[in-house]
Amino acid sequence: MATGQVTMLEAVALRQMQEDQLDLAVREHARLVYRVAYSVLRDHHDAEDATQETFMRVLRYGGKMTGVRDQRTWLARIAWRVAVGRRKKTPEVQLEDAGETVTRLRSRSPGADEAMLDAEKIGSLQRLIAALPAKLRDPLTLSTVEEMSPKDIAQVLGASEAAVRSRIFRARQILREKLATLQE
Amino acid sequence: MRTEDNGQSAERWLDAALKQYGEAEPRPGLENRMLANLQAERARLTLRRWWWRPAAVVVTIAVLTAGAWLLRRSPDVTKVPISNQPTVVTRNQEPEPTIASANRPYAAPRPPRRSRGESPIAQPSSIPRLEQFPAPAPLSEQEEMLAQYVREHRQEATMVARARAELLKTELLRFQLQPASPANVEESEP
């Protein structure tokens, strides 16, 4: 009888601890989760829904959270998977088509380097990034999230840090070359 | 020279664009919304985890009530008067009140159970209900004549019946007293 009571109390205490832990994780990492989701989905409502779903998944499988060492990366990984799962099938974009948009924008405003990039320009960059191969696109997208270091990105994508650095470098190189070519 | 400028320009543009690309601020109160939704989800999960307990209690009570009702009702069945007249049960027929139910306080008669799709109009049964078994046959011609004689000459008929009964009794006594022998048998034979 006493053992049963102790076990029940332990279960209640463990559940309470998990709930507190999750609440703390929400307060500390909700923005990171949101940004990771936004980097993939590029829509505020979708990103918020993905953030919600990420924490719901953590709640349903809350027992695993206790044993996680790096909660930040763990949550970022879940958010990445949720967002990729929600990502709509984007139509294939050719780099040439995306580049034309950038050229048009740059020619319209010569002092655009210093000027604030507006939403239209971001849209054109999005098209350029979307045209990259997935292997290069994913690390580059995650690298735009301020809090994510190459080490974190490597953990999220399940690749080595060196591979992530290399892929980011190659992705940037492709984009840079494309921009330079289009400008000539 | 121009190519280098273009390259640097593109590099700067790309850096700025990627920085802005990754900048995303959620609407204010994101954490509070997440926490509220988590709280609601927790309540829902808790409810789902425990819903079967009250359901089990309700089912148990229902089973016990049904069992008690059946036990209370079963003696009534034995008190139904047994008659040699077979009861022809037809659909939509009101159940006859039993002795036990007669002692109970009045309860409104329940409407007959109908199966789904059955029309509420009573359908005549193909087998007529019999008042007596076997069914009374009509009198023969001789019996009708006898009945008429009894109705018209009641006293004479009574006397004849008594004399007949006496005669039968006498013959029966004589038959019982005399032992059966071949002689008697031969005598009795015409």
Radius of gyration of chain B: 49 Å
CATH topology of the largest domain in chain A: Arc Repressor Mutant, subunit A
- Low-confidence spans of chain A: pLDDT under 50, at least 5 residues? 112-116
Report the order of strands and helices of chain A.
HHHHHHHH
The residue-averaged pLDDT of chain A reads: 79
**Largest interchain contact:** A-B, 41 and 30 residues
Number of helices of chain A: 8
- Characterize the overall form of chain A: elongated
* Overall morphology of chain B: rod-shaped
| Strand composition percent of chain B | under 5%
| Alpha-beta content class of chain A | mainly alpha
Percentage of helical residues of chain B? 55-70%
How far apart the termini of chain B lie comes to: 164 Å
What is the H level of CATH, i.e. the homologous superfamily of the largest domain in chain A? Answer: Winged helix-like DNA-binding domain superfamily/Winged helix DNA-binding domain
Largest pleated sheet of chain A? none
Q: Please give the CATH architecture of the largest domain in chain A.
A: Orthogonal Bundle
Low-confidence blocks of residues of chain B: 185-190
Number of strands of chain A: 0
Regarding quaternary structure, what we see is: heterodimer
**What share of the residues of chain A does DSSP label as strand, in percent?**
under 5%
- Please write the string of helix (H) and strand (E) elements of chain B: HHHHHHH
Could you describe the 3D structure shown?
The complex is a heterodimer of chains A (184) and B (190). Mean pLDDT of chain A is 79; it is low at 112-116. The longest helix of chain A is centred in the N-terminal third of the chain and has 40 residues, at 2-41. Chain A has helices spanning 2-41, 44-60, 71-86, 95-108, 119-130, 134-143, 150-157, 161-183. The termini of chain A are far apart. Chain A is mostly helical and 184 residues long. Chain A folds into 2 domains: 2-86, RNA polymerase sigma factor, region 2, helix turn helix motif (Rna Polymerase Sigma Factor, Chain: A), CATH 1.10.1740; 95-183, Winged helix-like DNA-binding domain superfamily/Winged helix DNA-binding domain (Arc Repressor Mutant, subunit A), CATH 1.10.10.10. Chain B has 190 residues and is an all-alpha fold. Chain B has a domain at 141-178. Chain B has helices at residues 2-22, 30-50, 52-78, 99-103, 141-152, 154-177, 182-188. In chain B, helix 5 crosses helix 6 (154-177). The longest helix of chain B is centred in the middle third of the chain and has 27 residues, at 52-78. The model of chain B is unreliable at 185-190 (pLDDT under 50). Chains A and B meet through helix 1, helix 2, helix 5 and helix 8 of A and helix 1 and helix 2 of B.
